[in-house]
């Protein structure tokens, strides 16, 4: 089981490597990755230094190229594929079919990981990408139960990567129509479902209201902790009640089901958060490293330690966590 850590910059990459990651993933400082934020990501020289550092420690370095080329000038997306191959990245993470075909035809030696942005969640889709583009791994959307992951493992030879900790998205990854409708922009292109310029925190008497694109997301009483306004974690009126209809604020954390996830045949545990700090990367990577090692040391008696959960909760949204759909019996 691989522990895969995010790297929003070179210091975070080194922190991930130094705290036990088996692999890291990062994007370039352009529109080709969905975390193209101010002060984040890598230049070509920084990427070369990061890959060299990772390789010197026996750690793999994967390049993220998970947005879709735009019609006016798609050249930067193809040039970024060329750059990843030139720098000898260990894998490239792609979603767009044209880019998948380009990479497969031009650089057959460069392993392709299918991005979660492709939303491949069934065996037929996964095997299609393997058959046509030789994808060696698929990053699964955060909407599958452990039983469904186990079934996929039996139906495909492609490696399965799952999100283990961080932000939880219960929509089609990067293509949330609710967010697009509210903000007028694509989450995939913006790299975030709630762009900061569309977010408002407003006081109304003794109540705090949060809005996204002018739409009321939630209302909080004095002293109540307010979550960052995202559609899926808002409070809405349904059946004459106001509550978190889709998902309560909290970070995904599969630690309590780690043994089940490993035994389902997953190849990689992915930590979300290229936009997070170096401290976050170091802390979460170290906890997951310890947990995975503890499982393999004695699988039958594995139990998540209280200190691990406490440490991860301290980095979580709302200082709490959820098992998301891993624990749901949706079948």
What would the keywords be for this entry?
331 residues, alpha/beta, TIM Barrel, 8-stranded parallel β-barrel, 11 helices
Helices and strands in order:
Elements lengths: L1 E5 L3 H9 L4 E5 L16 H13 L3 E6 L9 H12 L4 E4 L2 H10 L5 E3 L8 H11 L3 E3 L6 H10 L3 E8 L10 H7 L3 H4 L8 E6 L2 E6 L2 E6 L14 E4 L2 E4 L6 E3 L4 H6 L4 E4 L6 H20 L8 H8 L7 E2 L9
Parallel strand pairs: 1-2, 1-14, 2-3, 3-4, 4-5, 5-6, 6-7, 7-14, 13-15
Antiparallel strand pairs: 7-13, 8-9, 9-10, 11-12
Decide which structural class fits the backbone: alpha/beta
First and last CA, distance: 27 Å
Q: Average pLDDT, to the nearest integer? A: 89
Strand count: 15
What's the CATH topology name of the largest domain?
Answer: TIM Barrel
Strand portion: 15-25%
Strand order of the largest sheet: 1-2-3-4-5-6-7-14
Fourth CATH level, the homologous superfamily of the largest domain:
Aldolase class I
- Looking at the overall shape, the CATH architecture of the largest domain is Alpha-Beta Barrel
Shape: globular
Description:
- The structure is a single chain.
- The chain is an alpha/beta fold and 331 residues long.
- It has 2 domains: 2-168 and 250-327, TIM Barrel (Alpha-Beta Barrel); 177-244, no CATH class.
- The chain has 11 helices and 15 strands.
- Strands 1-2-3-4-5-6-7-14 form an 8-stranded parallel beta barrel, surrounded by 6 helices. Strands 8-9-10 form a 3-stranded antiparallel beta sheet, with no helix packed on it.
- A hairpin with a 2-residue loop joins strand 9 (207-212) and strand 10 (215-220).
- Helix 1 (10-18) runs parallel beside helix 2 (44-56) and helix 1 (10-18) packs parallel to helix 10 (278-297).
- The radius of gyration is 20 Å and the shape is globular.
- The model has no long low-confidence stretch (mean pLDDT 89).
């Amino acid at each position: 089981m691989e522990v895969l850590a995010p790297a929003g910059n070179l210091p975070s990459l080194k922190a991930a490597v130094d705290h036990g990651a088996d692999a890291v993933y990062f994007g370039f400082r352009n529109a080709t990755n969905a975390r193209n934020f101010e002060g984040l990501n890598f230049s070509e020289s920084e990427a070369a230094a990061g890959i060299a550092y990772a390789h010197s420690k026996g750690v793999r370095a994967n390049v993220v190229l998970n947005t879709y080329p735009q019609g006016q000038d798609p050249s930067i997306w193809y040039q970024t594929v060329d750059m990843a191959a030139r720098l000898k990245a260990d894998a490239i993470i792609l979603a767009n079919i044209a880019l998948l075909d380009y990479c497969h035809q031009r650089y057959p030696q460069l392993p392709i990981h299918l991005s979660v942005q492709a939303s491949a969640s069934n065996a037929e889709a996964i095997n299609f990408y393997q058959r046509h583009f030789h994808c060696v791994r698929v990053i699964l959307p955060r909407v599958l139960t452990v039983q469904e992951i186990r079934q996929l493992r039996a139906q495909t030879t492609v490696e399965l990567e799952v999100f283990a900790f961080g932000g939880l998205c219960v929509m089609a990854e990067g293509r949330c129509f609710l967010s697009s409708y509210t903000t007028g922009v694509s989450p995939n292109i913006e790299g975030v479902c709630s762009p900061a310029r569309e977010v408002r925190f407003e006081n109304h008497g003794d109540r705090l209201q949060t809005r996204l694109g002018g739409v009321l997301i939630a209302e909080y009483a004095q002293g109540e902790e307010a979550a960052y306004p995202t559609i899926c974690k808002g409070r809405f009126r349904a059946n004459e009640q106001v509550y978190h209809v889709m998902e309560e604020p909290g970070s995904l954390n599969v630690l309590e089901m780690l043994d089940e996830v490993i035994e389902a045949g997953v190849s990689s545990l992915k930590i979300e958060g290229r936009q997070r700090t170096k401290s976050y990367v170091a802390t979460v990577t170290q906890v997951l490293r310890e947990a995975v090692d503890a499982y393999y040391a004695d699988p039958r008696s594995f139990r998540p330690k209280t200190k691990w959960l406490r440490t991860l909760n301290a980095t979580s949204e709302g200082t709490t966590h959820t098992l998301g759909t891993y624990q749901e019996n949706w079948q």
